[in-house]
Amino acid sequence: MQQNLKNIGWKRIVIKVGSALIAPHRDGCSSQYLLSIANFIVRCRASGIQVVLVSSGSVAAGAHLFNNVDNSSMTVKKAMAAAGQSEMMATWDRLFDFNTAQVLLTHADLRNRDRFESVRDTLTALLQNDILPIVNENDTVTTDKLKVGDNDNLSAMVASAAYADALIICSDIDGLYTANPHEDKSATLIPDVMRIDPEIYAMAGGATSDVGTGGMKTKVQAAEKAVSHGINTYIVNGFSEATFNTLLQGGNPGTLFHAIETPMQDQSHWMKHTTKAQGELVVEDTFAMQKQSDDLITPQDLVNVIGDFSAGEVVLLRKENGDKLAKVKSNYSSCLLNFVAEQDNDDLSEKLHDSAAPILSEQYVSLSN
Ligand SMILES: Nc1ncnc2c1ncn2[C@@H]1O[C@H](COP(=O)(O)OP(=O)(O)O)[C@@H](O)[C@H]1O
Ligand SMILES: N[C@@H](CCC(=O)OP(=O)(O)O)C(=O)O
């Protein structure tokens, strides 16, 4: 049956496929579950819907090549990822008769605005030329400081970079349940989530399989990122062909997190949901942010500087009592700001203002209500 998929209202979608679907037995890649996903992608593209694929599975795919090794070692995992990535790409390639492109990213590529926009441009150019981008984290080169860490959050960052209309997270389970059904047999599926609040997070546990990373918790985090960019987000069971038939008919086969009605502006969204604060600027509990002023804070406001960061990096502005005020780009390094915070000199404020840029750039996103 041929449907007009344009009726679904999607122009561009991101599909994220979990490791359990690619290398279910940690014994190399299997196309067993990928066929129906590939068929879905083919049908979307044939209807004029642009698709970006975020594929996990490099570690799980490469694992069988390593014997008698410590599977928990990060170095071994990075080597598995390097070996498994080419097998994973080759497996997807066999399922398509159009071109694919490998896009490997780390968080460092996304938390810098110029690089984020460069990723956006590359994805757009690939899609305009009918090439299917296949994105994964570049596990082989990441460190704790550089990585996103899970492909759920990565797929949401990619979906916002791509200005997608929908994010479809294909997992090994039907969607978000009231509790992990592997641990609580009375758990029930939640079909619709209109608002992601602490109650939703409390239901979402970690991964319980050998191959998954993050479990439902990182999927809810991803959904929160995506819906605030105006992207409807589905968590669906990728093992079942019926899932994709339902999606093609405009239905919801799992859990649908509904996009918020008034999405955040793109730059503020990026600052809140894609950047990571590289340090903290601490101000007194009585501090009130002058949002309309050129100087969000003055040297006298600064009580403490935490962490090492360079000029131009994003930091968290917070009160001594822990209340978060804003995520904001610092015009100065932590080294210089530590010096500023230690000074007991009112003149410094004026000097800094007259001779250089304010401490914080005008690029910020408020975190206070
Ligand atoms: N509330 C919940 N509802 C559904 N699954 C949950 C829940 N809490 C934890 N999980 C776990 O999350 C797993 C899916 O995440 P994960 O293993 O990371 O898969 P993937 O490889 O698809 O990312 C489920 O198999 C289940 O064990
Ligand atoms: N980047 C890793 C996947 C990380 C990840 O989030 O895995 P999963 O929970 O299966 O989506 C890999 O390719 O093995």
From TrEMBL:
Record's keyword terms, sorted: Amino-acid biosynthesis, ATP-binding, Cytoplasm, Kinase, Nucleotide-binding, Proline biosynthesis, Transferase
EC number: 2.7.2.11
Residues the entry annotates as binding ATP: 16, 171-172, 213-219
SUPFAM superfamilies the record matches: Carbamate kinase-like, PUA domain-like
Top-rank taxon: Bacteria
Subcellular location: Cytoplasm
Ranges for domain Aspartate/glutamate/uridylate kinase: 11-237
Catalyzed reactions: L-glutamate + ATP = L-glutamyl 5-phosphate + ADP
Binding site for substrate: 56, 139, 151
Molecular-function annotations in GO: glutamate 5-kinase activity
Pathway recorded for this protein: Amino-acid biosynthesis; L-proline biosynthesis; L-glutamate 5-semialdehyde from L-glutamate: step 1/2
Top enzyme category: transferase
Family: Belongs to the glutamate 5-kinase family.
HAMAP family, sorted: ProB
Functional description taken from the UniProt entry: Catalyzes the transfer of a phosphate group to glutamate to form L-glutamate 5-phosphate.
Protein name per UniProt: Glutamate 5-kinase
Organism: Pseudoalteromonas spongiae
Record gene name: proB
